[in-house]
Each structure stands twice: as structure tokens, then as C-alpha cells.
Amino acid sequence: MSEIRRLLFRTKRGLFGVSLLGLFTFLAVFGALLAPEDPRASSTDVLIGPSSSHLLGTTEAGSDVLSQLMVGARVSLVVGFAAAVISSVLGAAVGLIGGYFGGWTDRILDAFENWFLVIPTLPLMVVLARLLDPSLLVLILVIGLTSWAGTGRIVRAQVLTLKERAFVERARALGATDTYILRTHILPNTLPLIFANTVLIVAVAILLEASLAFLGLGDPNSISWGTMLEAGFGSGAPSAGAWWYVVPPGLCITLLVLAVAVLGYLFEEHVNPRLRDQR
Amino acid sequence: MTPLMEVADLSVHFPTRGGAARALDGVSLEWRRGEILGIVGESGCGKSTLARAMLGLVPATAGTVATDGAAVDGRVALRALRRNVQMIFQDPYQTLNPRRRVSDIVAEALVVADVPRAEHAARVERALDEVGLAPARFMRRYPHELSGGQRQRVAIAATLVLEPAGIICDEPVSMLDVSVRSQILHVLLGLQKARELALLFITHDLSLAWQLCDRIAVMYLGRIVEQGDARDVIERPGHPYTQALVDAVPPREQREPLGGELPDAANVPAGCRFHPRCPKRFDPCDREDPPLFAAGEPGHEAACLLLR
Amino acid sequence: MSALLEVTGLTVRHRGNAIVDSIDLTLASGEALGLAGESGCGKSTTALSLMRMLPPALVQEGAIALNPPGEETINIDRRTERGMQLVRWRHVSLVFQGAMNSLDPVQRVERQIGSAIRLHEPRAKPADVKARILELLATVGLPARVGRAYAHELSGGQRQRVMIALALACRPSLVIADEPTTALDVVMQAQILKLLERLRAELGLALILISHDLSVLAETCDRIAVMYAGRIVETGPVDQVFGAPQHPYTKRLLASLPVIGGSRALATPIPGGPPDPADAPAGCSFRPRCPYAAERCEQEPALREVGPEQSAACHFAPWERWPEPVVVEEEPG
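^ Those are the sequences you sent over. The predicted structure of the assembly is below.
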């Protein structure tokens, strides 16, 4: 564990990722409390640039951009993490079962997985988001259900190697049940990989949420960076030169995704050499 | 006295693209209580498959496995066998789950066998003591904190907790350094004497088999080609392959070593399976598959037409 | 006539700790030297340092002089990386440990051997390269069709032979083989050893053979150097060292080797394990495990001549007879 701590807190990448993620998480939790104004409060100061009363200017409805930005962090992070968790759990389950039991189970699950891998994610999500009532929950489910297949693949590969290890064979030689072996030997040795992969999926999920919101398919009742971008473009902010409306949310999305991705690769690096040589 | 395990005409054939791979092709063997039986052969000869087939880890295509005179058929019998006969593996670095502590690893057999938890600690400690690892120092450690020799000791301790009558050792020391090797062998022999264990010692190292085993069975391409008392088999081999193995052990005399390689298990030669490489082959060898003939001393047999 | 290889004071450090501690080696042209020792003793590190192929975390010091017949002396320790590229494979080559898995899985064998040949003869004609590939395959006892094969289509023994062919590609005068037979069966091992002997005889090759298996070295080598904890503790002609070892480690190591036809009693094992380089004991490095250790052993013994051409690093060598060993506390190794 200390190796992870070293990677997280003593490397530049680790500190970058941890501090940014920490900042955004803080905002997600306390944003609503700390926002200077009610993000939905409209006023007559429409599309005004940054000033002392509105540090990041106002929207086309006269709402405070900074407040919206702070509150919007919550949606991005909640959707991102929740969707990633669903995706990981599903992918891990499929990978574990298919990889361990092999045979027809594996072939069926594998075909299932291929189907999901091949479907273009964004069009699928557009269709699903249109068919179902848009709400955060639906958003989370949609993202989770379309991104699990990658995890499934990776987990399956790992399980296939683990199955052949002497300590698994030994457990079988003792007469252990499959459930026991999965629980005691396979799963614990797959968890680091699943975790590293989950972090990377968080980055993907955040981007997907922003994309959907930007396309107008998000939850209309919530404020997120994606909805800000949608509203911003929709109200002609770029051509009006109102950069304070679209640049901050875009920047936040980028930074958050970057931070998560950096951390994800960090974990993967930690896990990877041990995949090949478990000494 | 009935042997601990008896194998009759055991075959294991794997379907492959090139035809059936005859990993085991009619093996009959007796493993007696309290004896150290060596299974010797090159890699690919089927010795590991034999061990796994004996414990039901690999399904047999034909033949029978019996323990204490009773056939092992059905789950109840198999479960009982797996408590009575345990196995240790070759690679000490792969044999222990890296995420579990030593005490959990050693106690695993007890967990699987539903032994009451209250008994676990005492049994685990006793087992660690017997392999020379002080429980107080080693119980809480993880495998990566142990050396190769220590890991192998843990693996041995893990087999002792159920008080087995026999241990199958699949190349247990071949990946260890020479000085550590002799330590582990000492542990195994000490246990064997103290508990009157039977050991099935699988190895490709003939000199090790010479030193340790009471009886030896030599395998070639899925078949036992010679068996008997260890000294008889090695000092007076009845089969040309055994002779070639003995000759190949370094430092060797300046004779030409045996040429060629072990054929694929899917391409077993017709007649005597060794005949393409055999320096002593003669006319019938490519047509007749020899059974085991007597080779001199009592209990010593070899499958060579020269002995007919 | 100077020796083919002269190594003086070779030391390799990792974070300040010596993994190889000031060793000297000489090798005459066509001679076979065996480097014996267990894992962690520094023998593989020594091999890599002779080729200046250590990973960046390891720092080497000491003089390494190579005198290829008919050519100028090459000071390996003083060459730049570019300079070393002219030396590697052309004068000295290495058959790595686990060499069987070192073949590129997506290239045919002939392509890999061809690349090795062209390393030092970039302008060689394709026809000549092809002829040389066939010649090399024949030298190592492989049929010509192996050239067209991929690594996974070959057996372990065949792959090992290909690795040896690769090592010979540029006609070096010295080949270092690191555990060339460790993963092989006894029959395959015998074949490879016989091949190495034949190559020595036919090509006048000098060989440094590294192995933890003393019996393998006994068969193939003229001289042997036994390493322990980064130092050479004994060296001499093979027959002498095996017949009359002068260092307790060598003696115990030899005693633990089973010999067919010999005693079937297990010798008392050497307790414990080799020392951690970061935690090296003062004085003789073998002292904690030595059954004959005495107060004098707190001083590090120098490697000195104790017989005709035989040297040992032990205060009490030469041993006329070996006294009763003191029982050492058994530390599980």
C-alpha cells in the first residue's frame, strides 16, 4: 500500500490528480452551500462580463455563472462515479463468470459483450435518452450500461491467467467449491485491476454526461457543466463574445477528466507490472 | 498391506487439432503406504498429468484409480481421497495466493474440509513448527515477504493440517537453489519419517530420485517403461531409455547423448514408443508395443522387447 | 601471449551497496570458465557487466580488457555506448538466462539471425547472409527448415539452439552463457552441453558458463570460480576444486549434490540463506552460515593461492583435513 501512497503523494502526476480531484469533490459536496448566489436566480443583468458582483459574469437569464459552475460540479462527479461503479460491477461480474466457467457460459457472455462493444455509444445513448424520461438516474444507467464491456474484457483476461495458477489448482485439489475459489482466490487478485479500470471509466462517464447534456438530452432540471455549455451555445454566447459563460465549464470538464485520467493511469501502472510477474 | 493408491490402465487423452494427445496411455502403478515412490521422466512424458489424474483434477478417459483397495468413483470417495492425499507444486512463487497471510493459506485445507474453527490455530501452528517456520514470526506474513524456500515450506505446512497419509510432490525443489533445496528435502524426509507418510516424488532429476526414493517408475510418452527398486532401476537399467537418462546426468562420460526429442503426445510412434530414438532397436520394435517384462530383480520390470 | 579476457577489480553497486565486490577473472583463448553460485550471488550481474549491459540503476567500476586474437585490445570499461555497440556480438556475445523466451514471437528465425549478422556486416550480400544462416543452423544441429519457423513452433531445446546460433552469428571469440540448460530436461541438457563442447573444439570459442548446477560446470569447464555474496570465494581447475575444495561453501555445496552410485544419505544442509547486499556482514560473508567459523573470520579473508593454480578466500585454507563442523542455528532459508 505504501507504494500507492508514494505514487499518489510524491509524484507530480499524483499530486496533480489528487489535488484537482480533491478540489472538485469539495465543490461537489459544498458547492451549493458556498455559492455566492442562487444559481437559478435570474436578474436583469443579462450576459454581463466578470465584475465585482459576479466574478464570472452572468448568463442569458442574468444568473451568476460562478454559482452555476460551483453547483454544476456535483452533477458531473455524481454521474461520473455512479455510472463508473455500475459499469465496473457489471463488467467485472461478466468477466469473472465468463472467464472462470468457460465453455458455453463464456461464449454467450462474450457474444453479449461484443454486441455492447460494437454499438456506437453516443448514438445509442441519444436514442435511449430520447426514449426514456431524462433524469439523472436514467443518465447514470444509460452511461453505465453502455460502457461495461471494456471492463468485462480486461477482467476476463485476468481471470483466465489466474485460473491456471498453482494456488487455484491447489484449492481445487483440496476439493474447494467454485464459489469459494472465486471469492477467496480469483476476486481478490482481480480487484486492483478492476479498481484501476474504474477510475478510467469515471473520466469517460463525465465526458459522456457533458456530451449528452450539451446535446440537450440531459436532465433539464439540474445544472451541470454540460447544461451550461448547452445553454451558453444555445443563447448565442460565443458569437456575443460572452466567453465567461462557456470557457469556465469547458475548462472544468477538461481539468476534471484530466485529473481522473492521470490518476487512472497511475493506478494501472501500479497494477500492471504485477500482472505479468506476481513475485 | 493394501497400497495407499493404485492406478490401473489409466489413460488421459486430450482432444487437439492434430488428433488425440495421449498424455497418459495406460498407466498401472502401485503407491504403497509409507514409501517414497519416484516418478521420473522428461517434461511432456505425462508425470504431472498422472498426479492430477490421481487426484481427479483431470478427468480420466479410461482406467481406474483406487485408494486403500476401494475404487474412487463418485464425489464422496473423491472428497475423502483429497483429504487423505495432498499435493505440493513446483513453483514456490506461484503456489501461494499473494493476497493472503501465511496462517490463512495454511488453514485453507481446514476451511474447505469444514473443520471447526476452534481447532484451526493449533493445527496451523503445529504444521508451521514441523516445517521449521516459527509460528510467532511467520503466521502474519504475506508471501512476498518470504524467500523461495520459505514459501515452499509454507506450501508443505499447508498439506499437513489434515494429517494426510500421502503427499504428491510435483518437482518441489527444481526451482530452488542448491543449498535451499537440501533444506527442503530435509524437511520432507523428516516429515516422512515422523509421520510415516507416503511420498510420490515427481522429478526429472534422476540423481535426486536416486538419493531419495525407495522405488522408481520411469515414464516415457504417457507410459511407464520401467519400474522397480530405486537402486536396481538406476544401477542396472532394463530399458534403453532409463540407461540414456542415467548416462545424461552430468558429469557424464564422453558417450554421445541420446539424440532427438520427446515426440508430441498426439504423435505416439507405432510399436514401441521409444523405438525411433532407441540405440538398441531391432526388427520387431516398430511393430510390437512391449508390455512390462521382468528385468532381473524381484519387482523390477521394464517394457523392452530385449527382455522377452 | 596475453589472456583473451582480463577483469580486474570489477565492482557493481546498487544504491551504494556492492552486489559484485571487486572480482578478478582471466580467461585464455578457447578456455571454458565456469561461474558457479546460487541466485543473488552476482553471477548474472557479472555477465551483464562484461557486456556493459547493466540497467541504469547499477553502477560498475573496474577494468575489463578484451584481447581478441589478431586485434587490438578493447578496454570495455572505457568504451562509450557507441563504442560498445561495435563490441557486442562481434567480439563477445551472451546467451541470456531464460533465453528460450527471448526470441521475437512475430519474426521467423531466419530473419532474427539475419538481423544479428547484419548488425556488424551491414553491407553483406543477401546470398552470403542466407548461406551463413544455414551454416549457423547446421552448426547448432538444427535442420535448415527451422529457419522458416516461428518461435512458438519450436520446442524448448530447439529454441535454445537458436539462441546459441544467434550468439555465434558474428563470430565472437567469447560467448557468455547464463544458465543455458536450467530449464531443460536432462537429455536436452546433455545435448546442449555436448554442442557447446563441440563448438569450443571446432571454433576455438572461449566460454564463460554460468550455472548454479555444479555438476553441469564440472562436465564442460576447464576452470571454475565459485561466487558467494558478490565475491569469488574459490577458483581453480575444475578437477582440483571438485576433488579437493578449499572453501567451506564450496565443500558444503558439493556435499549436497546427489551423485548416482554414491551415498544415498542426505548431507546436512547449509542453514539460512545468502546475505542481503544492503546488510552485508563485516568480515567473511559466509561466516553466519559457516560450520567452521572462528573469531578470525571477523576479518575479511583475501582470495589467495592455496595450491597449484587454486585460490580460496578462507583464513584456514589450505585444509589438510576438515574438522567436525559446529552445528549452526538453523534459520529457515
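Chains A and C do not touch (no CB pair under 8 Å). DSSP finds twelve helices and no strands in chain A.

Shout if you want it in another format.
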